[in-house]
Amino acid sequence: MTKKQNYIYAVGRRKSASARTRLFKGKGENVVNEISFSSYFPGKIFETRLERFLKLIGPDASKYYFTFKVDGGGKSSQFEACLLGLARAFSQVSEDIKLRLKKEGFLTRDARIRERRKIGTGGKARRKKQSPKR
Questions:
Q1: Could you identify which of 8, 30, 48, 134 might form a hypothetical disulfide with 37, taking C-beta atoms 3.0 to 4.6 angstroms apart as the criterion?
Q2: Residue 94 lies in a domain
Q3: 0.85 exceeded by pTM
């Protein structure tokens, strides 16, 4: 018999990255794809962005821990997807938290994606072929 887990579920997306978020009440380790959060996203930039986010949540942030399943995209867009998923999960916790997150722009999905390559450009999306010199 399996024990039913109580968690809040949300999905965050950025570019081609998708993060499935589970927000648990209690004490635990924050995990991304079975790896600790700080190991999966090493570096000062990721750490400071997460700290800024958790500071916005306030004292309620220490009462929760989260897990992510992330696929697609690069590290930066995966991190952005995780933050959006986490923001959506915390917005279900309290209306006050939701208003603070919305005001700071954490609940807005960044819809910018990679531009497709065009036919006859001879390279990337906006590159043009070199014109003859004379």
A1: 30
A2: yes
A3: yes
